[in-house]
Amino acid sequence: xxxEQTNKVLAAGGFPSKTVLCGNDRxxxxxxxxxxxxxxxxxxxxxxxxRVAGHDDQPLSEYxxxxxxTVSQNTTEMGRLAITLLLSKLDSSRVFDDxxxxxxxxxxxxELVLRASA
Length: 118
Hints:
The protein has 118 residues and is α+β, with helices and mostly antiparallel strands. Helices cover 32% and strands 12% of the residues. It has a single domain (3-113), classed as 3-Layer(aba) Sandwich (Rossmann fold), CATH 3.40.50. The strands form two sheets. A two-stranded parallel sheet has the order 1-2. Helix 1 crosses helix 2. The protein starts with a helix and ends in a 5-residue tail after the last strand.
């Protein structure tokens, strides 16, 4: 949600919750900008109007104000597994012993990075 879209939501009465979970940090940046422009206090304190969290831990997420709570993914491991999966599809005789590669879905751990925005 870009800041223009957030402005429309705020003008129409706001979000249905005090917590906004964004699909990625760039969307969260837009929500933070619009909320700041609207004079809302963002954060975890009892006097805060809104809590905002993102997903993907963009490098600037810790430097904006307030620093963005986000989810950090192990992109190195994601890339390694993607290459492994691709190679296994290209050469069906290759067997990989990683149990995560047995099913149709691969589940990787992520880390919640708590910062001041939520």
